[in-house]
Write a structure and sequence with these properties.
The chain is α+β, with helices and mostly antiparallel strands. Strands 8, 9, 10, 11, 12, 13 and 14 form a 7-stranded antiparallel β-sheet that branches. The structure holds uridine-5'-diphosphate. The site of uridine-5'-diphosphate (UDP) has 14 residues, from strand 9, helix 2, strand 12 and strand 14.
Length: 241
């Protein structure tokens, strides 16, 4: 499958058309942004890690019955995916209070919830991705009630599977962001990526942050943290291509 014209360039990825209108090629960059694009930088090697990690995790989820956009990894930074219409919601699942949740509600970061929580943000850079409940999402015609129910169900199932996976790597899954898309027949599938850019991952023993918070909060050792988390995943799955 060959790359044709570039359709889109986002903060961390470029998207290309292919000769098949139903398929796209995603290319992962090393560029990193935070705080709605206010902070910009580069994390050397991130594109390769995010591409490989996202694909391996999505493969695992597929095997567990979660439909995803993944078709096949093409190179270190490129993956063939099914073309979907993205549902313009950031779907955030949390097991432990951190980041915007800790700040908004005045909860200490690290507070463990009895049950996982879910929230949506309306994907809109100009508005700063505002928090949005399911009724708002319906009112704004971002998704139907049935789609929101499917998204919620998949998101919690994905959380249970990822939490178990990362626990076996000695890593605590604190929270993460998902995006879903619609296939031409309307079926909802998991899209976008699952990576240290989109998850909070803490070393289970030391609590050390092994994710993009090292970049957001200028903690140093950013590249090392991405390499470490990839190494943990490889050790768990075997370093197959
Ligand atoms: N997240 C993301 N993209 C965003 C916002 C959040 O991938 O635009 C992820 C983030 O990495 C974290 C989770 O979603 O794992 C929850 O993020 P939060 O709402 O706490 O916002 P943050 O503090 O990261 O701005």
């Amino acid at each position: 499958m060959e790359k044709k014209e570039q359709l889109y360039e986002g903060k961390a990825k470029k998207v290309f058309a292919t000769q098949d209108p139903a398929l796209l090629i995603v290319q992962y960059k090393d560029d990193a942004t935070a705080f709605n694009g206010l902070k910009k930088g580069t994390i050397a090697g991130k594109g390769v890690i995010n591409n490989q990690m996202s694909n391996r995790l999505m493969k695992m989820l597929e095997a567990e019955g979660i439909p995803t956009h993944l078709v096949e990894e093409l190179s270190q930074r490129e993956t063939l995916v099914r073309r979907v219409q993205i549902v313009p919601l950031e779907v955030i699942v949390r097991n432990i209070a951190a980041g915007s949740f800790a700040k908004r509600y005045g909860v200490e970061e690290g507070t463990v919830f009895d049950q996982p929580t879910i929230e949506f943000s309306y994907k809109n850079d100009a508005l700063g991705d505002p928090l949005c409940n399911a009724y708002h999402a319906e009112a704004l015609k971002l998704a139907t009630e049935a789609e929101l129910a499917a998204i919620r169900d998949y998101a919690f199932r994905i959380n249970a599977l990822l939490k178990k996976f990362w626990r076996e790597c000695g890593v605590t899954l604190v929270d993460f962001k998902l995006e879903f898309g619609r296939l031409p027949d309307g079926t909802i599938v998991l899209a976008d990526e699952i990576s240290p850019d989109t998850c909070r991952l803490w070393d289970s023993k030391t609590g050390e942050k092994l994710d993009k918070d090292r970049f957001r909060r200028d903690l140093g050792g950013v590249e090392e943290a991405y390499a470490e988390i990839m190494q943990r995943l490889n050790a768990r799955l075997g370093a197959q291509a």
